[in-house]
Amino acid sequence: AMGSLYAMVLDRHGRLADTELASGSVAAIDIGTLTTNYILCDRLQYIEPASDSIRVGISTALRHIARDWRDEFGLDWTQQLGKVDRAVRAGQLELHGQSLDITDRVQPRLQAVAETIVSHAHSLWGRGQELRAVIATGGGALLLAPFLRAAFPHLRQVEGDPQLANVTGYLRIGLRRFG
Predict the structure, then answer these.
(1) Rounded to whole angstroms, what are the CA distances from 135 to 43, 68, 91, 121, 166?
(2) Which of 23, 135, 150, 172 would bridge 10 by S-S if both were Cys, CB 3.0 to 4.6 A apart?
(3) 115 near 64, Cβ under 8 Å?
(4) How far apart are CA 88 and CA 103, in angstroms?
(5) How many angstroms separate the CA atoms of 61 and 54, rounded?
(6) Model pLDDT for residues 99-135, shown as the tens digit of each residue
(7) Could you give the CA distance from residue 179 to residue 173 in angstroms, rounded to a whole number?
(8) Residues 6+ apart with CB under 8 A from 21
């Protein structure tokens, strides 16, 4: 998730744009498909003992949702998590030509995964009171950020597509170092 931090503190030319984040302790939660990575940085220096990874990602929630839909609707998308992801992000599922609002059905599954992610973050950083910010990034950040924000009110999200934030940040650090 270092790239996501670089994406937030550097502008598109690699120049320092956010001195507040760059000069303090910042944590990042990178929610991927299969894993969630946690980093802690102090003045942009990686702090390894307070950084970690767990084998819980957005696919954890999507697999449970797919099983729920199989049981409730007879819809077997357990091997098609991309379709589940698109429906969850849209908040709607089309069944028999009718659109069904699924927001209330998926929220408990998303919340359960977010609670696991937050629990591990608390084991690393406590409640985060000493952190200048907690950054949510990765493909699962859009779906889980509202739940993470309840635990970390100073949660910030990378602008644009959080799935590309790491790449964007490494491009910016490359521009900074090599021009």
Answers:
(1) 15, 31, 24, 12, 12
(2) 172
(3) no
(4) 7
(5) 14
(6) 999 999 999 999 999 999 999 999 999 999 999 999 9
(7) 9
(8) 5, 8, 9, 132, 133
Nearest CA to 128 among 58, 36, 50?
Answer: 50
Which tokens sit at 102?
Answer: 């699924």
Best CA proximity match to 4, nearest among 172, 158, 177, 174: 158
Q: Under the phi-then-psi rule, with left for phi > 0, alpha for psi from -120 to 50, and beta for the rest, what region is 136?
A: beta
H or E element at residue 149: helix 141-151
Give 79-118 as a 3 state SS string.
Answer: CCHHHHHHHHHHCEEEECCEEEECHHHHHHHHHHHHHHHH
CA distance 123 to 10: 29
The per-residue pLDDT for range 62-100, each reduced to its tens digit, is 999 999 999 999 999 999 999 999 999 999 999 999 999
Report d(CA 27, CA 30) in Å as an integer: 10
- Token readout for 89 is 């992000």
| CB 169 within 8 Å of CB 3 | yes
Q: What's the DSSP call for residue 10? A: B
Tell me which amino acid residue 95 is. Answer: L
The answer to whether residues 155 and 176 touch, using CB atoms and an 8 Å cutoff, is no
